[in-house]
Every structure is written in structure tokens, then in C-alpha cells.
């Protein structure tokens, strides 16, 4: 395989939460080990990738970030222009367990996005007042981010969680992330309160700082490990006929063990 396809699994993970909570800096810290003090709100959608080892498997994480605001209205479907093709090359077939990619031009029915490489030029109309449904399509994990120094961003977590569960796959792995833990002197959201909310809603929980990198690696490592173990426990060895009909099986996601809260002292 070429360098771009030398992995065992590809998992799409989305970042959601209010504008200004640090989603873009979490993305850049994890994928490029960078932090931008002058980071502005994301316009449209961006994603970056990084590969890491989980239980001896090479996992390629595709992390998506969007600046589209929360809306109480139904999300709109954007316009796509696909000019190429999709190639699927899975070692494992597990279409019964996670969302199935069916709508992309050239996709083979029965394959999940995480086993397909999209060789395409995709133009997305992101001039929408609502988050497009496509943002959640194929996602197997989500980081629901709030700012520990701004209580309003934590209050809105409930609405973000509802939107996620309304439009994402029911088995998506979700982690609640209290970002900017370096601003402990400005803390507006008690750790115990957020942890209790996560437990009540079946989420894992961690506090991070994109500025000093505290727990950023751990957050992504934890959610990707959770996803991989769910997938690997349900996946089957590829047979002569890699496309199998659905069996109706379901998977249950349990929240991870809480991670340690960061003790940094700076902003973001």
C-alpha cells in the first residue's frame, strides 16, 4: 500500500460545541502539535488526519471541525460536486455495526467510511445557517467541547448533545471535553458537575488545555481506543465475498474511565 493507505482502520471523529471553546486548537494540537493564540472562529468545515497505534493496529484518525453555529432549526443538506471516485480496501468488514457509507459516488454498498478512501474533489456549499447533516455522516466518534471558564458554553452542551444524537449514528462514541483547563483561576464549570453530567448521559469525560497540550493526546487516544475495541470485537475476517447482508446486530458503547484534569496556568 502507499503511505496514504497504510493503515488498518480509518475513523471519522467530529468536534462540536460553541464557537470559541477551542475546537480548532484541539484539532491543530493533536494533528500538528501547533497552537495559535490568534485563532479565529472556523468558517465552513475543515479536517485533518493523524495516525496512531491502538492495540497494535495502525489507526488513521480523520478529525472534522466546523464553525457552523448551533441552530434550533432542522439542518440543511449542502450541495456536493464529486469529480472522482471512492476506493474501498478493508481488511475487515463490519457494516452491520457502524454507520454505512452509501451516498458517495462510486461507493460500494456495505462498506463503512472508515474502510473507504475517498479519491475525490468535493466542493461543499457551506454558506448555510445550519449545520449540514453531512457533517455527522460516517462519524464514529465525537468530542463535545465546552470552555471551563464560560458557563454558557457548558449550558449549551445539552443542545449540542441532542443535535448529535438526532443526526449521528445511535452508536457513536461521545466524549465530553472541558477545554481551557489552564484557566483554572477563571473556572466557571466545576469538574464534578461536568463529570456527573457525562456519567448521567453515558459519555466519557476529560478536561484538556490545547494551549499547554494537557490531556489532548489522552482525549483522542481514549476515544479512538474505545471506537477500535468496539469495532474489533464485532468485526469479521474478510471472506471471499466481503459484502454481507445486515443481521440486525447492535453494539452498546460504555463510557470510558475519567481522565485526569489538567493543572495548567495559561489561556486556551
UniProtKB/TrEMBL annotation:
Q: Where is the composition biased (Polar residues)?
A: 249-268
Family annotation (InterPro entries): P-loop_NTPase, Rab_GTPases_membrane_traffic, Small_GTP-bd, Small_GTPase
Question: One MF term in GO for this entry?
Answer: GTPase activity
Positions of region (Disordered): 238-268
What SMART domains does the entry give? RAB, RAS, RHO
Q: Which family does it belong to?
A: Belongs to the small GTPase superfamily. Rab family.
**PANTHER family, A to Z:** DRAB11-RELATED
Q: Kindly give the NCBIfam families that the UniProt entry links to this protein.
A: small_GTP (TIGR00231)
Write the protein's name: Uncharacterized protein
Native organism: Meripilus lineatus
Amino acid at each position: 500500500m502507499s503511505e496514504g493507505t497504510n493503515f488498518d482502520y480509518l475513523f471519522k471523529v467530529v468536534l462540536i460545541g460553541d464557537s470559541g471553546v477551542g475546537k480548532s486548537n484541539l484539532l491543530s494540537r493533536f494533528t500538528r502539535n501547533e497552537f495559535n493564540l490568534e485563532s479565529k472562529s472556523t468558517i465552513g468545515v475543515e479536517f485533518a488526519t493523524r495516525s496512531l497505534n491502538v492495540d497494535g493496529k495502525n489507526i488513521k484518525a480523520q478529525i472534522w471541525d466546523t464553525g457552523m453555529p448551533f441552530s434550533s432549526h432542522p439542518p440543511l443538506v449542502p450541495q456536493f460536486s464529486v469529480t472522482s471516485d471512492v476506493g474501498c480496501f478493508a481488511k475487515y468488514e463490519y457494516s452491520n455495526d457502524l454507520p454505512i457509507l452509501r451516498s458517495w459516488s462510486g461507493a460500494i454498498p456495505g462498506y463503512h467510511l472508515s474502510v473507504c478512501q475517498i479519491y475525490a474533489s468535493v466542493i461543499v456549499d457551506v454558506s448555510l445557517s445550519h449545520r449540514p447533516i453531512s457533517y455527522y455522516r460516517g462519524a464514529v466518534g465525537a468530542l463535545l467541547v465546552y470552555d471551563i471558564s464560560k458557563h454558557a458554553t457548558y449550558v449549551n452542551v445539552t443542545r449540542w448533545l441532542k443535535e448529535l444524537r438526532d443526526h449521528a449514528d445511535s452508536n457513536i462514541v461521545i466524549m465530553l471535553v472541558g477545554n481551557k483547563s489552564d484557566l483554572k483561576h477563571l473556572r466557571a464549570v466545576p469538574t464534578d458537575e461536568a463529570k456527573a453530567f457525562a456519567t448521567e448521559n453515558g459519555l466519557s469525560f476529560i478536561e484538556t488545555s490545547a494551549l499547554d497540550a494537557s490531556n489532548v493526546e489522552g482525549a483522542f487516544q481514549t476515544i479512538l481506543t474505545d471506537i477500535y475495541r468496539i469495532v474489533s470485537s464485532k468485526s469479521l475476517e474478510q471472506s471471499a465475498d466481503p459484502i454481507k447482508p445486515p443481521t440486525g446486530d447492535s453494539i452498546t458503547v460504555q463510557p470510558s474511565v475519567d481522565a485526569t484534569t489538567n493543572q495548567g496556568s495559561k489561556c486556551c
